[in-house]
Every structure is written in structure tokens, then in C-alpha cells.
Please model this.
Amino acid sequence: MHGIEADAVFEILVRENAAMLATYLRAAVRDPGAVDDLFQESMLVAWRKLDKFDRTRPFGPWIRGIAARLVMAHYRNAPRHGLLCDEDFLAYLDQQVQHIAERPGDTWDEKVSALAECIKALPEHYGQPIRLRYMDEKPAARVADHLGVSLETIRKRLQRARARLLDCLQRKGVVAEAEADA
Amino acid sequence: MTAPEHNRPDRNADRLAREWIDDEPHPARDTETPADHEPFTAERRRQAAGQGLVHSLLTGLYDRDQVGRERRIQDVMQRIRTEQQPDAPSINVTARRRSRVVRWGAAAAAAVVLAAMLIPFTQSDPALATLDKMIAAADGAGDRTYSIHLRDPGRRGRRRPPAGAGPAGVHRKATLDGATLHFRGRDKFVLIRPSAPGRRVIDGFDGQQSWLVRPRKPVLVSDDPTRFRIPMPEELSAVLSLDVRATLKRLRDEYDIEHLDPDALNDGPDSPAWTHLRASRRDRGGRGPKVIKLWSHPETGLLRRIVFENVKVQSQRTPRHVIIDLVNQKSLPADWFTHDAHHPGDATVELVTETP
Model:
């Protein structure tokens, strides 16, 4: 064809889906080292099973399916947090990540660019902990020290801030509205 | 936002979600199963997943570790290519807690995605290929902080006091020796030069305006990116500009490039062996230092150190090495490259419109 090796073509798929898969894994697994490992394992499994991939279907959901199975295996060794992360949890994440992937934009960053606007719209007592935690990369305990409040207060404040951001992203159509239980 | 129902499983789910995202890793605790566990509702799991999603998006938004992202991809491709080799040993798929390639000083891993489509690597000349990788890396969007020092070539490892230094309180001109240089992307910069003790002269460019902050003088701002010329040795100005990419391209055009042995630069046990180049000026009678040495990350091409050797510096009787070292890649405040971040809010700001 063009003399391009199969691995070079697969690299294109890896690059096109790297940000999406990293988002999915980071939402499901806390430890950055584990995210890197699961990213690599997911892509390697996809490479080895490429002949089983239905090429009439998109690659993104398929690689996330592989990643979901690896995440579940990962939590067999960390049952405390696996209490939350089950198939429903991962199915919700899959739905939301797919919703983002279908948004307009050439890159993943473009598709989620509304997040910056949502952060700016936060009241300051939510916005400041968010900036300290994520922009300045301070652990929650240091954010608490910085603001002179308890760790539990900061945890709750961050949780509420993230909930507000999720609401904002839903209003802007970046993520889908959650479906109610039947 | 719907207020959470106050029942025990919900509070446990909320607490677990908070701990999961915002607590430091605790391997011993993470492997325990809470004794009072009750099944969580699907609604609570969705809320926890929503928290995880926003946490992930926020982490990605502020993630300037492009080297880490690129390394993740390169690791995958390396494993694939290794597996394709006929004599490759079987590789354990599970690789936990691999050591990071770059953990040096207080810096996070450096990053810039290779612009392989834009920069044609010169495959036949490995040294030029390394320089091309550095040129591509110079377009990186991440923040970088460099230090600048002048060093007597004859006193390896020992620095003289900054050029022009005098007794405390004695006025001295701003000097490059001991200066700090911040970059964002290709051309935004802030250069902080020490002058009198406790005082600094700060030059910058925010992408649209250049500016100059001086002690006890109005702040000057101009739409001309080159309005405020930074005094530097004439010999250096022939090759060095604050557009890193342009500087490296000038080396490519005017210097012969060769590899030297990789060098860890005493950066500690976890640092990589930096790729080491020597650039020798082709035109013996031309302007610019005769020899320039560069050290860069072996994978990403990020510039770690550049040394301009034996540069004639005004006010110095003998030539000096000018050494520019990468200090870290910590993210700087969003407004760092505007003049507002470097002077009091009530400072006088003058827009300079005429060429002197």
C-alpha cells in the first residue's frame, strides 16, 4: 500500500484515543501509576486482539470495554474502592466519555473546553479549593492548611465544587444528563 | 443540585468517594473492606462516577506534563515493536509501579509532543535528528523555568559572584548572571535580572505586548515585540534570542553538530543520561560563540542545558561561559507572562509607541 507498517497505523489509533482513554481511566482509578499501567495494558490487549475487532464499529468504545475489564481486575486487589467502582459505575463513565467524544472539536481538549468556563463561574469558596487542588497540584491536606480549614471541610467543599461543575457541564451539553432509575 | 439523602449507605458512598479522590494513597487501608459496608444504590454510584469524571477532566485540564503523555504512548509502541521482534523474550504484561524516566530536582517530567509531521528529521545524521527533536520540543506549551549564570571557564564547578556585584546597597546594572528565564510555549517569556540588592529588572512578552518593569520607574509596555532590547553580549546576540526555536534553528543553519557522550549532569540517581551535543561554528570568522554545547532529554528533546562557551562579556576582562539551565517545569500562574503579575497594582504604566 504505502509501505506503512501495521504498528505505525496502530500508533495513529493510540494517539487519537490517548486523551479519551486516559480520561476514562483516571475517572475510575485513583493512582496515576496504575492509570499508566492500565493504559498500556489496554492498548497492548487491543493490539493483540486487533483481528477480532469489528472494523465497522468505532474503536473508542471497544478500547474502553477492554479497559473496563482491566479496571475490574485491578480492584480485586483494592476492594475498598472497588465497592463503588462496579459495572454500573463503569457503564456510566463509558456513556459520558462517549458523549464527550461525539462533541464537536478536533482534539479532546477542544471537546471539553467548556470546563474552563464552568470553573470561572464557581463561587470563590469553591473555585479557590479547585484551583489549589488541580492547578497548583496541592494534596487536599495542604489545601486545607492553606485555607485554614479542616481536611474534612475541604473534602466536602471539593466534592460540592465538582458536583457544581458536573451540573454546569451537563447544562452546556459536554456531559449527558444522568438517566433516572426506572 | 439535589441534596443527598441522609441514610447510612449514602453517607458511606459519599465518604468513600471523597476519600478515593482526595486522600493520599494508603495501600494498607485500600485493601481493607469496610466492616459496615451495605450495598450502594445505583444513584450513589452514578454520583461517585460523576465525581470521578470531573476529577479526571480537571486533572487533564491542568496537566502540562506533555512528556508524560508522550511517554505513555511511546511505551505502548515500544512494547508492541519489541513483541514483533522474532527473538523477543516473553514480556510480563503487568508492570506495576515502573520508575519514572525523569524525576530530577524539584521538577515534574518535562514534555513536548514530537511534531514529527512538521519537522523532517534528518535520519541520515543522528546529531541533526537530535537537534530537530529539540526544535520540535521548543514548541511545547508547557511552562519552563531556566537559570542563567556566567562562569569562568578556568574554574570548573566554582562560580564567581555575579558580574557587577558590589557591596550591599551599591547600585549595579541588571545582569544576566543569576537571572531567571521563564518560558511558555514558543515565544512568551519573562526574564528576571538582578540589579541592586533586592531589586530586579523584569522583561517580558505575553504573546501580544512586550513590557519592562524597573525599580522605581514606570512600567513600559509596547506592541512591538522587540521594543525593549535586552542587553546581552554582542557575541551571544548573534545566535541567542528568546524564541528558543529560532535559536536552535540558527544553530542548525550555522553550526556543525555532533554527538558527545550522554551526560547525567550530576542530576541525581533518577535522572536520565541527557543527550549531549556540541555545535561548532562553521564560519570561523562569523559572529557567535565558536562552540555551544547542549543537553536535552533523550526521548522528548526538551532542552536541559545550553552552554555558550568563551563569550566576551562587557565589563569582564576574560571570556565567560554563559550557562542556561532548566530549573523546573512547574506551572506558573495564568497571568505570569503579563506585566501585571510583576508590579503593584498602582504602578504607572506607560504605552511606548515611538521608536527611540
Remarks:
- Chain A has a mean pLDDT of 89.
- Chain A has ten helices and no strands.
